[in-house]
Task: structure prediction
Amino acid sequence: MRYVQIDTTADPNSDTQPSSMKQKDLSKVLVQELLEMGILDAELDEHGYVYATIPASSDKKVPVICFCSHVDTAPDCSGTNVKPILHKSYNGNDIVLPDDESIVISTKNHPYLLQRIGDDIITASGKTLLGADDKAGVAIIMDLAKYLIQHPEIEHGKVRILFTPDEEIGRGVAKVDMQKLGADFGYTLDGGDRGHLEGESFSADGCTIVFQGVSAHPGYAKNKMVNAQKVAAFFMTLLPSDTWCPEQTEGYQGFVHPVHMEGGLEEAKIQFIVRDFDTAKLAEYETKLGSMAQEAIDKFPGATYTLSVQEQYRNMREILDQQPHVMAFAKEAYLLSGLNPEIKNIRGGTDGSRLSFMGLPCPNIFTGEMGIHSKQEYVSVQDMEKAVEVCVNILKVCLKRYEI
Ligand SMILES: [Zn+2]
Result:
C-alpha cells in the first residue's frame, strides 16, 4: 500500500529512459529497503533499473534465479494521488469506491472476486488506478527477500532481483545489462489469477503500408490525379471485420490490427500490429496484407505501395521449450504450494518475452492483480502471500533437482 502511493506512471511520449523520472522515486525506496534488510549490493542504475542479490544460503552449485517485476504503471488511467483501501475479510458484496461512487467493482464484472471471499482485498478509492500492476509483483519480491534473509535455514542458491521501468510502454528491458544481471533463468511476477502460469506470449511484428498517389491541380486533374487517401480507404474495406481482427479473435487465434492511419492526396500511411502465437504465421499475414495492397493499387492505376515490417517480440515458448526445467520447476512449486498450475498463454507480450530472447528464459507467475489499467483494479493480500510461497518453493525445487 506504501508503494502504490508513489506515482510511477510511464510516459509513452517521452524519449528518456526511464520515460518519467518519477519512476525512480519508488526505485529509490526499494533500494533503501533492500539495504536495510542487509542486501548490501542493492543499486539503482542511471536507466532506472534496480539490481540486488539475495546471497546463496547453500554451497551446492545451482543455477542463479532472477525474480523480476516492473515499477511503472499504465498511462491509460491516472496514477497520481493513489489512495489505497484495505477491505479486511471481504464479504462477497460489490465494492463501491468512496471518492467516486459511480465506480463499483462488481462481482458480475469481476467474478474472480467471488473466489476471494474472506481474503483481504486492496482497491484504490475511485479516482485512480491502484497500480497492483505491477506493484503487487514488487511487493511479492520484496517480501520474498525479507523472508529469505530472516530464514537463513532455508537452503537456496543465489537469487537476483530485477525491478524494471517502462514495461507498460514496451520499453521495460531496453537497457537491462544481462551481463550484470548474471542469472541463468528467471520469473516475472506480473500475472493475474492465483494458479495461472504463463509460458507463452504472442509473437509480434509492426507493419507499415504506404500508398503513393499522383497529385495534380484539382481543376485539371482528369485522367491524371490518383488520390492516395482513396486507395487507402479501399484497402481498408478489404480487411475482414468478422475474422483476423482483435475484436473477433481469442485463445490461440492471431490477428492483424490497423492502429493508425494518416494521409493526404499524395501519400497515405497505415500502421498495423501483427500478432500470432506461431511466429511463421506472421510472414503469412504480412504477405496477405501485401496482396490486399496490390489489389487496392490495381483498382487505382498509377498508385504504388511499399510495405515494411518491424520485428517487435517473439513467443517466449520457443525459448522455454529448449529449457523445459524452467517451467517444470514452477509447476512443481505450484503443486508444493497446494495449487494446481493452469498453463496459460498471454495475448500480448511481457518483459519475460523479451528477456527470454535476451538469454533469460522467463515465464510469468500470478500476483493476484485484477482489473488492471482501470479504477476497478484490485488485489488480494492472500494471493500475493501465495505467490511468495511459490517463489520460495521454486528455490527449494531447484536446489533439490540439482542435488547429486
Ligand atoms: Zn504488468
Summary: The longest strand covers residues 203-212. The longest helix spans residues 279-299. Residues 70, 133-134, 167, 190 surround zinc ion (CB under 6 Å).
